[in-house]
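Lecture notes, unit on protein representations.

Consider one protein chain, 138 amino acids long.
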Amino acid sequence: MDQAAQTCEVACSTVPKWIRKYRQWEVQAVRRKGPYLGKVPQLSPEQYQEFRAIIRGGPEAVGLDTGVWTAAVVAEVVGKRFGVLLSLSQIRRTLRKLGFSVQYPRQRLSKADKDYQRTLVEVEFPEITKKSMNKVVF
């Protein structure tokens, strides 16, 4: 079976599936239908262009009071705008496909200077509170 998989350029686990299908449905079940092209995109090309424009405009342009896009926020905006539910991983893949880089938070912030953090929150940005930072408004 390993040689058959290698010859057909498929995974070793695919060959037994083909054999089962052949035994059940004969040749029609295993006839090659062409390469698997993946799922049909949920957004049209025009919607992808609008999606790109929304991301470029920033969260404030769609009425959000945050300066940073997160995958969860983008998923919610896409859901409301286009009526499509995309997973967070699909949002990240779509952003990469549209030419955006996806950034992940660094854990080193927990090691930051606590006194400096307190100064920023209490003196420089007094209007920022935990409640307003976690709240997303559409």
